[in-house]
């Protein structure tokens, strides 16, 4: 436990973190990777380049500082991060390395303002926060390994099938090389793929949502090929999977993880909204509800640039034809000649009100601008927070700025 003086010092630094947080975390990552390049085998290089990881860490550090006297209030955030840490294979011995380099970054950025008293307080606070993460993750490792079909670390899976779903999305059906059982999962969870493409110095790990209902003898992931664009290079892992991995090849996976999951105890109408490859957890949730035999009303809305980018279109249409409780809609931003959709442009609140009701559970996933627009619409509609559920691909961002 932290003493009152330490808590007072930590909380006094919150305004400083609001101003300098991202600068501190950028410096932290640069210093840590210089001192411990082996950690580049774990961290997502693309998120580093795009600034997503430093931003996410800055937000986490700020939240911890602001709640240092009541850390139990941020346990849901801790558990979400810990899920990803377990999937990546983060170990207790990594935490002292992070702490040492984080304190060094605070000192470098703040200079003389980072007094010995402040650094000592942050050292103590980091120790408490790290112990919380280590404890939560130890329990997750134990539960995952002891679960039926579960395992610790990474396990080899064979690509049984590789199926193109659209011009940019391909599904991979993965079966364990050892022929043994695989762990079940909750709809909405992801697995983590570890690869070392030819010519790459380090291994690369990526989380991919499972895109089918649990209960199959395989895992299915549906991966978007991230081609190079003006603001980013091509995705190392997604292009490797699309261009170099074929049927019969082997991938290493960690067991399913994630806390963005469908609450199957609810009977309220369910609205699933996806943008682009954000359909992957939504399809898993949709299939789970339909296969359960529940009579819950479901509205599924998918937004894509055009029909050629629309994955699993026929698959969803077949479900809509055979399940009377499912209504399915498509929204194309710029449909090409001969393509039709239920709406052109973007999902907006007036249109959403024509296909769904406010007394529903809403789940959505997709690009950040898409999710900001959906959340803003739902809040304007008066949907309470407890019925709004969303998932970020990559480090957690914030949707709050759209509400100010």
TrEMBL record:
<feature type="binding site">
    <location>
        <position position="190"/>
    </location>
    <ligand>
        <name>FAD</name>
    </ligand>
</feature>
<dbReference type="GO" id="GO:0071949">
    <property type="term" value="F:FAD binding"/>
</dbReference>
<feature type="active site" description="Charge relay system">
    <location>
        <position position="137"/>
    </location>
</feature>
<dbReference type="InterPro" id="IPR009050">
    <property type="entry name" value="Globin-like_sf"/>
</dbReference>
<keyword id="KW-0408">Iron</keyword>
<keyword id="KW-0216">Detoxification</keyword>
<dbReference type="InterPro" id="IPR017938">
    <property type="entry name" value="Riboflavin_synthase-like_b-brl"/>
</dbReference>
<feature type="site" description="Influences the redox potential of the prosthetic heme and FAD groups">
    <location>
        <position position="391"/>
    </location>
</feature>
<dbReference type="GO" id="GO:0020037">
    <property type="term" value="F:heme binding"/>
</dbReference>
<feature type="site" description="Involved in heme-bound ligand stabilization and O-O bond activation">
    <location>
        <position position="29"/>
    </location>
</feature>
<comment type="similarity">
    <text>Belongs to the globin family. Two-domain flavohemoproteins subfamily.</text>
</comment>
<keyword id="KW-0521">NADP</keyword>
<dbReference type="GO" id="GO:0019825">
    <property type="term" value="F:oxygen binding"/>
</dbReference>
<keyword id="KW-0561">Oxygen transport</keyword>
<comment type="function">
    <text>Is involved in NO detoxification in an aerobic process, termed nitric oxide dioxygenase (NOD) reaction that utilizes O(2) and NAD(P)H to convert NO to nitrate, which protects the bacterium from various noxious nitrogen compounds. Therefore, plays a central role in the inducible response to nitrosative stress.</text>
</comment>
<dbReference type="InterPro" id="IPR008333">
    <property type="entry name" value="Cbr1-like_FAD-bd_dom"/>
</dbReference>
<dbReference type="GO" id="GO:0046872">
    <property type="term" value="F:metal ion binding"/>
</dbReference>
<feature type="binding site">
    <location>
        <begin position="392"/>
        <end position="395"/>
    </location>
    <ligand>
        <name>FAD</name>
    </ligand>
</feature>
<dbReference type="Pfam" id="PF00175">
    <property type="entry name" value="NAD_binding_1"/>
</dbReference>
<dbReference type="GO" id="GO:0046210">
    <property type="term" value="P:nitric oxide catabolic process"/>
</dbReference>
<dbReference type="InterPro" id="IPR012292">
    <property type="entry name" value="Globin/Proto"/>
</dbReference>
<comment type="similarity">
    <text>In the C-terminal section; belongs to the flavoprotein pyridine nucleotide cytochrome reductase family.</text>
</comment>
<keyword id="KW-0349">Heme</keyword>
<dbReference type="InterPro" id="IPR023950">
    <property type="entry name" value="Hmp"/>
</dbReference>
<feature type="site" description="Influences the redox potential of the prosthetic heme and FAD groups">
    <location>
        <position position="84"/>
    </location>
</feature>
<dbReference type="InterPro" id="IPR001433">
    <property type="entry name" value="OxRdtase_FAD/NAD-bd"/>
</dbReference>
<feature type="domain" description="Globin">
    <location>
        <begin position="1"/>
        <end position="138"/>
    </location>
</feature>
<dbReference type="GO" id="GO:0008941">
    <property type="term" value="F:nitric oxide dioxygenase NAD(P)H activity"/>
</dbReference>
<feature type="binding site">
    <location>
        <begin position="276"/>
        <end position="281"/>
    </location>
    <ligand>
        <name>NADP(+)</name>
    </ligand>
</feature>
<dbReference type="InterPro" id="IPR000971">
    <property type="entry name" value="Globin"/>
</dbReference>
<dbReference type="Pfam" id="PF00970">
    <property type="entry name" value="FAD_binding_6"/>
</dbReference>
<keyword id="KW-0813">Transport</keyword>
<dbReference type="GO" id="GO:0005344">
    <property type="term" value="F:oxygen carrier activity"/>
</dbReference>
<feature type="region of interest" description="Reductase">
    <location>
        <begin position="149"/>
        <end position="404"/>
    </location>
</feature>
<feature type="domain" description="FAD-binding FR-type">
    <location>
        <begin position="152"/>
        <end position="263"/>
    </location>
</feature>
<keyword id="KW-0285">Flavoprotein</keyword>
<dbReference type="InterPro" id="IPR039261">
    <property type="entry name" value="FNR_nucleotide-bd"/>
</dbReference>
<feature type="active site" description="Charge relay system">
    <location>
        <position position="95"/>
    </location>
</feature>
<feature type="binding site" description="proximal binding residue">
    <location>
        <position position="85"/>
    </location>
    <ligand>
        <name>heme b</name>
    </ligand>
</feature>
<dbReference type="InterPro" id="IPR017927">
    <property type="entry name" value="FAD-bd_FR_type"/>
</dbReference>
<dbReference type="GO" id="GO:0071500">
    <property type="term" value="P:cellular response to nitrosative stress"/>
</dbReference>
<protein>
    <recommendedName>
        <fullName>Flavohemoprotein</fullName>
        <ecNumber>1.14.12.17</ecNumber>
    </recommendedName>
</protein>
């Amino acid at each position: 436990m932290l003493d009152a003086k330490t808590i007072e010092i930590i909380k006094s630094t919150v305004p400083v973190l609001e101003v300098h947080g991202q600068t501190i975390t950028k410096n932290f990552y640069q210093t840590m990777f210089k001192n411990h390049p082996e950690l580049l085998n774990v961290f997502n290089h693309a998120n580093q380049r795009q600034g997503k990881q430093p931003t996410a860490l800055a937000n986490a550090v700020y939240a911890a500082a602001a709640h240092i006297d009541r850390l139990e209030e941020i346990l849901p955030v801790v558990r979400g991060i810990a899920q990803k840490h377990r999937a990546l294979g983060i170990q207790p011995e990594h935490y002292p390395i992070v702490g040492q380099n984080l304190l060094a970054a605070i000192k470098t950025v703040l200079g003389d303002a980072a007094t010995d008293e402040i650094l000592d307080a942050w050292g103590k606070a980091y120790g408490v926060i790290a112990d919380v993460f280590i404890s939560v993750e130890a329990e997750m490792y134990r539960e995952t390994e002891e679960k039926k079909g579960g395992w610790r670390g990474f396990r080899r899976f064979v690509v049984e099938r590789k199926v193109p779903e659209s011009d940019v999305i391909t599904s991979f059906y993965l079966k364990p090389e050892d022929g043994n059982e695989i762990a079940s999962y909750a709809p909405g969870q992801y697995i983590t793929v570890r690869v070392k493409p030819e010519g790459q110095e380090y291994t690369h790990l990526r989380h991919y949502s499972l895109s089918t209902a649990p209960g199959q003898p395989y895992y299915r992931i549906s991966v978007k090929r991230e081609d190079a664009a003006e603001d980013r290079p091509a995705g190392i892992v997604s292009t490797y999977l699309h261009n170099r991995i074929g049927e019969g090849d082997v991938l290493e996976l960690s067991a399913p993880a994630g806390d963005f999951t469908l609450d199957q105890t609810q009977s309220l109408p369910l609205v699933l909204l996806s943008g682009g490859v954000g359909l992957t957890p939504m399809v898993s949730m949709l299939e789970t509800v339909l296969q359960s035999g529940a009579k819950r009303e479901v509205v599924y809305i998918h937004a894509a640039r055009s029909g050629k980018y629309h994955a699993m279109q026929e698959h969803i249409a077949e479900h809509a034809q055979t399940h009377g409780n499912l209504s399915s809609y498509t929204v194309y931003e710029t449909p090409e000649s001969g393509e039709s959709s239920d709406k052109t442009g973007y999902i907006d609140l007036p249109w959403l009100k024509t296909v769904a009701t406010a007394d529903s559970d809403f789940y959505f996933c997709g690009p950040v601008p898409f999710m900001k627009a959906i959340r803003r619409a739902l809040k304007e509609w008066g949907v309470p927070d407890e019925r709004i559920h969303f998932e970020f691909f990559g480090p957690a961002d914030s949707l709050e700025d759209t509400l100010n």
